[in-house]
Amino acid sequence: MKILAIESSCDETAAAVIKNGSAILSNVINSQVEIHAQYGGVVPEVAARSHIEVMIPVIEQALNDASCSWSDIDAIAVTKGPGLIGSLLIGVLTAKTLAATKNKPLIGVNHIYAHGFAAFLTDNSPQFPFLALTVSGGHTTLSLYQENLSREVLGETLDDAAGEAFDKVAKLLGLPYPGGPAIGKVAESGDANAYKFPVAKLGKDSLDFSFSGLKTAVLRQVQEITGFNPGALDAQNSQKTYHLDEQIVADIAASFQKAVVIALVTNTQKAWLRHNPKSLVVGGGVACNTELRSQMHRVLPEAIFVPPVLCTDNAAMIGALAFQMAQNDIYIKPDELTADSSLEVI
Ligand code: KG4
Ligand code: ZN
């Protein structure tokens, strides 16, 4: 079965052709990161406009790369949520139109589920039920997935997502957007024990996360060092109005990263021991982080890490989940498919 998958929930326009839920025949990603970097974050209207411009060429490229014509495609899959509504709409409208005009079955996919199901594209496919830690710019979730594709959310962030915390702290340190890769890089030359940043403790039984206290602790530290009040972290002008020594930036970045990694690894280990699943998957943009990978692997050697190119937003993962949905006969009629910016179910 060959699925053409489309993804446009945030700032990547992507299309892929996936065979039998595991083989990537093509995986085209048009990133808008350079456009948004000049604003220090994703601007929703700019993202939607860019999706409109490149959507059709990206799909044509995916078919081309896979050496497929429309007659080879058995179904069309698209991200229906969660994400930025203007961005989601472009993918959803494109998929609905193509499904109707090319007469193909349609599958509407949940982006967050798909980050975990990207693991089916590796040599080491997960076994159901599997635990997934999904750490992205918008979500930090520990979920348990069953073979019938039902999901139990075991823990999630009560405030900022892990990726969001990376992006905000990077901005505070004068590092470029996206902040995660920038922090990961400078942290390599930093001392992770230079600053003691708090790891939120939400009770012995809780598998939830909280990163806002950590973010505030970094803000206070920067304030103490520079004597400058950067104000609210979200303020556009909090950048470059004070100077931080390169080594201090590296030390803060490493100490911050250490605190995030401790929170993620501790709760994942608790969930693993408590629910005894067959596999563990770590995916989403923050799963590119090398410190997270090495600490998680140390504690949970069975963890399946989604490869970096499939961790950040892509359409291959949408195709991987769509295949599982097709196996469970979960299709949707074109006139019933809508974009849902806060989608929680499959
Ligand atoms: O999954 P993703 O591409 O988009 C969402 O669905 O949100 O994740 C993007 C997030 C950004 O916050 C980015 O800073 C973070 O993933 N990220 C990283 C790394 N690479 C990307 N965070 C930490 N370390 C990295 N190496
Ligand atoms: Zn994502």
How would you describe this structure to a colleague?
A hairpin with a 4-residue loop joins strand 6 and strand 7. The protein is built from eleven helices and ten strands. It folds into two domains: 144 residues, ATPase, nucleotide binding domain (Nucleotidyltransferase, domain 5, 2-Layer Sandwich); 181 residues, ATPase, nucleotide binding domain (Nucleotidyltransferase, domain 5), CATH 3.30.420.40. The strands form two sheets. Strands 3-2-1-4-5 form a five-stranded mixed beta sheet, sandwiched between helices. A five-stranded mixed beta sheet has the order 8-7-6-9-10, with helices on both faces. The model has no long low-confidence stretch (mean pLDDT 95). With 346 residues, the chain is of the alpha/beta class. The protein is 41% helix and 17% strand. The radius of gyration is 20 Å and the shape is globular. Bound molecules: 5'-O-[(R)-(carboxyoxy)(hydroxy)phosphoryl]adenosine and zinc ion (ZN).
Helix-strand layout with pairing:
Blueprint: E1 2-7, E2 12-19, E3 23-31, H1 33-37, H2 44-65, E4 75-81, H3 85-102, E5 106-110, H4 111-117, E6 130-135, E7 140-145, E8 151-156, H5 162-172, H6 179-187, H7 212-226, H8 246-275, E9 279-283, H9 290-299, E10 304-305, H10 308-311, H11 316-327
Parallel strand pairs: 1-4, 4-5, 6-9, 9-10
Antiparallel strand pairs: 1-2, 2-3, 6-7, 7-8
Helix pairs in contact: 2-3, 4-11, 5-6, 5-7, 5-8, 6-8, 8-9
The structure holds 5'-O-[(R)-(carboxyoxy)(hydroxy)phosphoryl]adenosine (KG4) and zinc ion.
Zinc ion binds at residues 111, 115, 136, 284, 313.
